[in-house]
Amino acid sequence: MLFGRDAERAHLEQLLDAGASSPAGCILEGVAGIGKSTLWRNAVESARGRGYRVLQTAPSEPESVLAFSGVGDLFDRVPEDAFEPLTEVQARAMRAALSLGELPEGSPHHQALPRAVLGVLRQLSATGPVLIAIDDEQWLDPASARVLAFALRRLRDERIAVILARRPEPRGPLSAELGRGFGERGLETVPVEPLPMSTIKLLLEARVKPTISHPLLRRIHQGAGGNPLYALAIATELEARHASGDRTADLPIARTLGDAIELRLGHADERAGAAMLVIAALSHPTLAMLQAALPDFALSDLESAERAGVIEISGSRLRFTHPLLASTHYANTPASSRRELHRRLATVIDDEEERAQHIALGAEAPDREIADTLEKAASVAARRGATESAARLLEDAARLTPIDKPLAWSERIVAAAEYRFISGEVARAREMLEELLPDLRTGPLRARAGVQLAEIRGDEPKVAVELMEAALEDAAEDDQWRVKIESDLAVACSLVGRLGAGRAYAESAVRAAERLRDPNLLAKALGQLLGVFVSTGELMPRDQFARLSAMGECPELTSYYQPSTSIGLAHHFGGDVEAARPLLERAARRALARGEEWDRLGITVVLAELEWESGNHHVADQYRHTAEEGLGEYLGDLVWLHAVDARCALDRGELDVARVKAEHGLALAERNGAEWLSARLNQVLAGVELQSDQPESAHARLAKLREWLSSIGFGPAGVGKTPVWSQDVEALIALGRFEDAEQVLAELHARATVSGHPAVQAAASRSEGLLLGARGELVGAIDAMDRALAAHARCHRPLEHGRTLLEKGAIERRVKRKSDAKRTLEQALAILEPLGTEVWVSRTRDELSRIGLRRPRVTDGLTPAQARVAELVAAGLSNPQIARQLHMSLRTVESHLSRVYREYGVTSRSQLAATLGLASGPPD
After folding, report:
1. In whole angstroms, what is the distance from residue 430 CA to residue 99 CA?
2. Closest CA to 924 of 828, 843, 787, 823
């Protein structure tokens, strides 16, 4: 029965109202005994009455070390059809976590299970509202907390409510995560305050037989501080003393809740003590377990504890009536007795992980056999995906490793650090490895530790390269380690501007993989070599590219390192958007299905850039949001996303935003030695300066960038750095330094010839047109712009295409070709308007306004994009042809055409052509 708590109950009812339509939740927080569990149970019953499906767990302290015990409770009664939408990888991870059937060989990817839980929750909420209710959340096992936090943070409009109950300290592993990332506002904390004396009076009258006088009630209320469990413990003690005939006028009242609990435990006799200790130490105590651990145990031994309200017996299950009773009794037992009990329990427990936990707690000194047993249990936990438990068991194994086994100790610490990192405990993993690494001898184990530390410090490329190069020396002639280290070094060296070293490492990794005859390692090495060629602006030899292209899926590689993904990334960074998109989308889907979250997020960042360049800005924003949401869990300040955001803001003409993002990212990149990223951010800042009429600053920055790229051996086939040359031409033109601009333009033309890429050719021809236009050679300038437009037609970069049309239209206006200028500028507007790049749209409109011609009726009532679609339909082009020419999706063309039909009151293309023929009137 619930006494008082009207405000808290009303809040929970409102929460359940909200949860019936969208994610909602709260944390019931209060000290031990304040009544959180009673409120929690009341909310659970209310939810059931409302038709909620309730998933609940109330973990105890012994369960906090058992992996997935919380997830097991929550999904214990979920119908099997809720698991049907899961991929095979996710279903396998779910079965392993819940110990359903035999464990798979090897560890499942650590994000497969969180994705599976998210999928099941979405499936359940599709059929009705769901309540996830967790009492004593501070004892939820870390593995369950990690999985649930991942899933619950990703809910958007699912009908799921969450109610957690916990003590203020220690902070619960799940509530800390969801407090800042659940639904729209995070989980709200509802403090559970002390009860007033009037409510305490009702509670005691219902639970204690003798009537309590008002003065005594006041003393109890003051002594308990309004805590109902504390007050009940005091009143129960008073009742027991009265029953024994002790009517002392001034009865002692316990000073703390702990004292009151001890008084209550004191009513259980010695026979109950041993059995109570077993119950306190077990995660799921039963009569059978008690009889196995205590051969002389009889149920009558617990009579005194049951009479005192300390123990509850329900069938074969036993439990303390309150967790404080269990923890206090366990803590008050001498340590030697506890160790002896744990050794005894280890002989009767079937679950391997729980058994290992009791072995560790019962050990009195290092022991080789015990340490080996704990290491084996860690392997089982890892196969279940419980990396937190695997790490803890390995640390226990290291603690109990004899001093004459230093290598075994070190191996266990390195493995534990790897599992800590996988579990998201990055700081702890880094601390363990940095402490261990200086003391390790040269060899494979030191190489392994160095590689793991380099991965942890991956956002500091300079440090990561130093660690990996040291690890490479430690690996010596071990080709397995050489392939892994050199493949990663190839990319890392490129990031710090050591392009030659990166290529050498990639080629060496390929040779080592060939010696091993391992197709998976060879595929990764070839993929990294391809990436190095693209990033360094060189052309990969055709035979190597053909070799990589011929490789199928490699089962031992994650999605990011699959051959098709490497080719997709190369296409993207090489400027071939259309070839890259299907390969990268397929890789992202594979990573999602397999639970490879890190791979998926890395690919998502690339897709965000790809779609932005393609003009699909809405899709790009969705990818970017997904990347930020996921990467924020692993990294702190997302410097790569700062670069993406800065570039997008520049394209939109949001110069202040672009400058702030780029400068912030540049400070981080320079601090971490990320030279390549620094160059990219400097490109953005140069663009900001160019558009802010600061050509001198832009040129100084770009000249320094060109000098740096030349010094590190950046090849002539690089596409991504083209703006370093094209923007510098524009800056030098603005400064009136035409001869210097010619020299930079010559370099750009040379790069266009070597690369053969239409994007570089378009940039070179447009730059030439701008320079000729500045010199007054306007006919030659228009010819150069036409060459640029021909190149644009061979690559899908709508913003650059629109900008070239704008520059050509401006030159045509200067030579008085007004009709041509108008047509060209309206084409530019049709491309630029849908992109939302206001700075270029404004410039185009300004140029149009300076022509002075009356707009033909074809555009009356239509946007420039719709008018251009109408013109191309009248010219006989099909919808797919129009989509390609205007860089629109087919759906957008169809939408525009519907608007055009309505505007002119026609129902066919032929009618539209006839109408526009009549409407166009005489030429200007």
Report:
1. 31
2. 823
The whole-number average pLDDT for the span 840-858 is 74
pLDDT at site 887 = 64
Domains 6-191 and 279-362 equal at CATH topology level: no
Mean pLDDT of the chain: 87
The whole-number pLDDT of residue 40 equals 94
Residue type, position 559, single letter:
S
The shares of helix, strand and coil residues in the chain, as percent rounded to the nearest 5, are: 70, 5, 30
The three-state (H, E, C) secondary structure of 80-91, written as one string: HHHHCCCCHHHH
Residues 6+ away with beta carbon under 8 Å from 584: 565, 568, 569, 572, 603, 606, 607, 610
Task: Return the pLDDT at 837.
Answer: 85
The identity of residue 794, as a single letter, is: R
Matching residue, tokens 């209550």: 264
**Overall average pLDDT of the 115-126 stretch:** 92
279-362: what fold?
A: Arc Repressor Mutant, subunit A (1.10.10)
Q: Which region, left, alpha or beta, applies to residue 652 given φ > 0 means left and ψ of -120 to 50 means alpha?
A: alpha
Beta-carbon contacts of 921 under 8 Å, excluding residues fewer than 6 positions away, are 856, 857
The label of the residue with tokens 């791979």 reads 599
β-pairing, 317-320 vs 311-314, is: antiparallel
CATH class of domain segment(s) 6-191: alpha beta
Predicted confidence (pLDDT) per residue in 748-797, tens digit: 999 999 888 899 999 999 999 999 999 999 999 999 999 999 999 988 88
- Could you tell me the pLDDT band of residue 101, with boundaries at 50, 70 and 90? low
Cα(483)–Cα(705) distance, rounded to whole angstroms?
A: 32
Name the 3-class secondary structure at 548.
Answer: helix
Bridge partner list, 55: 132
Contact partners, residue 525, CB within 8 Å, separation at least 6: 483, 486, 487, 506, 509, 510, 512, 513
**Average pLDDT of the segment spanning 840-846:** 89
Quick: pLDDT tens for 156-212: 889 999 999 998 876 667 887 787 678 777 788 899 999 889 888 888 888 776 677
Burial pattern 778-799, b for ≥16 Cβ within 10 A else e, equals bebbbebbebbbebbeebbbbb
Cβ-proximal residues to 660 (8 Å cutoff; 6+ apart), any chain: none
Sign, CA dihedral 697-699-702-703, equals: negative
Q: To the nearest whole percent, how much of the chain has pLDDT over 70? A: 93
Tokens of 584: 């990268």
What angle in degrees, to the nearest 10, is found between the helix axes of 675-691 and 722-734?
A: 30
Q: Please report, as a single letter, which amino acid is at residue 420.
A: R
Half-sphere exposure in the Cβ direction for 660 (13 Å, CA): 5
Q: What are 65-90's pLDDT values in tens digits?
A: 888 999 999 998 888 888 888 888 88
Total residues found in the chain within this entry: 924
Q: Which of 410, 474, 473 is nearest to 439 (CA)?
A: 410
How much is the pTM? 0.80
CA distance 866 to 67: 59
- CA-closest candidate to residue 188, choices 199, 201, 175, 198: 175
Per CATH, domain 440-541 is 1.25.40.10: yes
Residue 601: φ, ψ to 5°? -70, -40
CA 153 – CA 23 distance, rounded (Å) = 10
- Taking the C-alpha atoms of residue 530 and residue 525, their distance in angstroms, rounded to an integer, is 9
In contact, 756 and 764? CB cutoff 8 Å: no
**Other CB atoms within 10 A of residue 368 CB:** 13
CATH class entry, domain 854-924: mainly alpha
Q: In which residue are the tokens 């950046």 written?
A: 714
Q: Taking the domains of the chain in order of start, what are their residue ranges?
A: 6-191, 197-265, 279-362, 440-541, 854-924
Task: Determine which helix (DSSP H) or strand (DSSP E) holds 248, and give its type and residue range.
Answer: none
In angstroms, the CA 448 to CA 411 distance is 10
**Token pair of 495 as six digits:** 């990031």
Given a contact cutoff of 8 angstroms between Cβ atoms, the answer to whether 61 and 139 are in contact is yes
